[in-house]
Amino acid sequence: MPRRRPRFRMSVRTRVLAALTLLSAMALAAAGISAYSLERDRSVLRLDDSLARSGAEIETLAEIGVDPQTGEPFASVSSVLRTVLSRVAPATHEALAGFVDGEITHVPEVATSFRIEADPELVAALAPASGWEEPDLLTIETSQRTYRVLALPIRTDPPSEQGAMVLAFDLDAEYENLNETFRTYALVAVASLAWITLIAWFVVGQLLAPIKVLRATADEVSSSDDLSRRIPVAGNDDLALLTETFNRMFARLEQAFASQRQLLDDAGHELRTPLTIVRGHLELMDPADTTEVASTRTLALDELDRMNMLVDDLMTLARSRRPDFVTRTDVDLALLTDDVLVKATSLGDRRWILDELADVQIHADPRRLTQALLQLASNAVKFSGEGSTVAIGSAADAGEIRLWVRDVGAGIGEADQQRIFDRFERLDPTVDGSGLGLPIVASIAQAHGGRVSVTSTPGHGSTFTIHIPHQAAEVEEGR
After folding, report:
1. What is the CA radius of gyration of the chain?
2. Which of 59, 205, 336, 344 could form a disulfide with 377 if both were Cys (CB 3.0 to 4.6 A apart)?
């Protein structure tokens, strides 16, 4: 069953924006929460430091101070508490109180941010502090507020009563300033997120514009089969590289379709003639005449062989545009030239000679190069007389590798030297052939990144040379 497309499809732009907005929101939230937690911890540490310093001062006063009313060392806890409350100025959001024997007995006369005695739950939690042996820092949470408290036991010598000095900070009030700051941060973060989303909407749209062009072009090509369309390349980023890749893909597709159409046209054009010949002779043949039947059979088989050769040549030309047309490997050029010469001697009664050998290693397809050279040798045999010279050679220069076939045959006029590489071009109709041999040689050279050239003088012969550029060959010097 065909897969059904989902009814709701989110565009790439929307998905990118959603991901970007989500990540930005998570980053801003993580930054805000981390900063808020750190500031809360720092606030508690600051309050603890203030409480510790105040506690140290009170302990020092109780140990070595004197009662201002008597001028003597403190004789009672109450006198210490009274003196402390008269000398210590509470900070913002701080309150003090004195406890004697579990009861709150001393409170500051000055106005403070809050009053310890106003919160019964706090008083009840601190009542036991009078009997503690050591100072204690603790956090007390009541139904009214949350407090950071230092309970400092007070003792006199000689001991009289048990008491404690309590210093408390209103944590909720301290946090309120911090909360206000981070409420502002939250508003700024939301505004920043909105701006990020708005700017990203336009930026992502601009970045994805080439993809929209790619999609539109692909739709147009799909609907019109116009493979000549190319997409403008802008910039040098990944999208530009993607555009270039699409353009190369369109070029390959256009080339493939053109090759396919040309193959069909060529096959239709060239196969029609032998089919017509065979059909005509079969229609006119007298079945009772054995001689005519044998003659017609021989002709039909000959035409079928020619059609088979033509189909093979057309298929070779069609495959020449494919990446796997040549399979490169390391080739000894001297050995390849010798092998071609040996194989070519069976093509005709000629004086076969070796012009030159390039003792180098090249990276090429030996099978295709052999095919091309033998095709050139076959042409040399067709257009030269018996006993004439046909030479094969190879050479290596700094820039390229050259392989050639030379004959002293009929030669080619200057006006025809380029035309002979076109498909089905035959300068001499009396000579057997499909007119595809030289185009195949040219295709093999092009598949190696090279070309084919010809130098010829009518009546004095021709030299066909395959040039392979230096990039496709590695010259090994000193061998």
Report:
1. 51
2. 344
